[in-house]
From TrEMBL:
Species, as recorded: Belliella buryatensis
Name assigned to this protein: Uncharacterized conserved protein, DUF1015 family
């Protein structure tokens, strides 16, 4: 089903290899304002391509890219490769180091209705538009989206383990994660990757905005090229692939911040009582423990107080009838329907456009924003199981935006993939 190709990657010149910690950046949708300020100071940091500054940011990125190419800051590999990408990390409270194993390649930017790449969450419209404009101007992808394939036998792992013994980069990132990148350029081995993925559907784990931007760009270019053969550069998109059946996948919760709502704490609680049981907490630190493993339970931070709220079970029967079974009982769908739509009055279909909802992974930053009145209130959520994500994808429906946070995030700037035809060209049929 899924067509992938190795990448003729652009990478920082080897003279910068020891500086990669200072040249890489968090993904565009997770880099904080304070991180940006620090990263922008370095004129060679990849953030100037992924989240450019200026009145016309995409045009600025185009100028930066041309400058870097002319000065040899980045150079292109002339032989395409499959890039093996391992991330070593520990979660709070865990002593054992975890390794998430995967590889980076190019995949055709299949439209959703082709049923090859499956999405699981809605997108935020403005973020998609920004990604399309950047791709249109630079013809470069500065970070890989994250896709999942299913392989019970882990057939590619031995090849990846062998490659990672001779890394291109080995560094520690902003998350405290050890990032290791290697490359496979042996055509006979690349064929095994291409062959295995050819029979798979891909579940998009992270990067919905960037992938949707790639779809839009592909459609735009196909309209301009009526003789399109399907193998042109603009058809492809850089993706990081991991095995969905690997035990080392981790999904963390993403909390909700609600901004600029003219509602008092008392009025909010009164409206919530129609749908939720409410329990006041003595200590905000109790929130995550009290909602853990409890269906339809959330933490609420408003004013100086914290509460546990949990859907009244009988209310589940009032979920919209058109929601398929894998979706209608999900915690976040319950939250977005009963709290965001019913209590706050923002319909499900309009929530992805709302500037009154922000998404935050860190509990303490949620507390800070509420206590400083930068947010009206916050809702603390729990994680979702990988099996649930897969069920939603295969149902053809989507969860609310920012439903999952696959950890760790990939880095921007480790390598770049060009969709410029001259830079893309290669006899890729040798890998089929």
């Amino acid at each position: 089903m899924a067509e992938i190709l190795p990448i003729k990657a652009w990478r920082y010149h080897e003279k910068y290899s020891r500086q990669m910690e200072d040249l890489t950046a968090p993904l565009f949708d997770v880099v904080s304002a304070s991180q940006r300020e620090v990263l922008y100071v370095n004129p060679l940091n990849s953030i100037h391509l992924s989240v450019p500054l200026g009145v016309a940011p995409a045009e600025e990125a185009k100028k930066t890219l041309a400058d870097w190419k002319s000065r040899g800051v980045i150079s292109q590999d002339q032989i395409p490769g499959i890039y093996v990408y391992y991330q070593y990390f520990r979660l709070p409270g865990e002593e054992k180091e975890i390794c998430r194993k995967g590889f980076i390649a190019q995949i055709k930017a299949y439209d959703w209705d082709e049923n090859v790449v499956l999405r699981h969450e809605s997108t935020i419209a403005k973020s998609v538009n920004d990604r399309v404009e950047l791709l249109r101007e630079t013809k470069l992808q500065s970070s890989a989206t994250h896709g999942l394939y299913e392989d019970e036998d882990h057939l590619l792992e031995a090849y990846m383990d062998k490659a990672i013994e001779d890394p291109i980069y080995d560094l520690e990132d902003y998350q405290g994660v050890r990032e290791v990148l290697a490359v496979i350029q042996d055509a006979s081995i690349i064929k095994k990757f291409v062959s295995l993925i050819r029979n798979k559907q891909i579940i998009l784990a992270d990067g919905h905005h960037r992938y949707e931007g790639a779809i839009s760009y592909r459609k735009e270019m196909m309209m301009q090229n009526l003789t399109s053969q399907g193998n042109e550069a603009y058809n492809f998109h850089m993706m990081y692939f991991t095995n969905a059946l690997d035990s080392n996948l981790r999904i963390l919760p993403t909390h909700r911040l609600f901004l600029n709502f003219d509602i008092s704490e008392g009025d909010l609680l009164e409206k919530l009582e129609h749908y939720f049981t409410i329990k006041k907490l003595n200590d905000v630190e109790e929130i995550e423990e009290l909602i853990l493993h409890k269906q339809w339970a959330f933490g609420l931070i408003v004013g100086e107080n914290a509460y546990k709220i949990r859907l009244i079970p009988e209310q589940i029967d009032y979920m919209p009838a058109d929601l398929p079974q894998p979706v209608r009982h999900l915690d976040l769908m319950v939250l977005h329907y009963f709290l965001v739509e019913k209590v706050l009055g923002i319909p499900l279909k309009e929530q992805r456009y709302s500037d009154q909802i922000e998404y935050e992974r860190n509990l303490r930053r949620c507390l800070k924003k509420v206590s400083s009145s930068n947010a009206t209130f916050a809702v603390i959520t729990r994680d979702i199981a990988m099996q649930k994500v897969m069920e939603v994808c295969k149902s053809g429906y989507t969860m609310p935006q920012k439903s999952t946070y696959f950890y760790p995030k990939t880095l921007s700037g480790l390598l770049f993939a060009s969709v410029d035809e001259e830079e893309f060209k290669f006899p890729y049929e040798m890998f089929q």
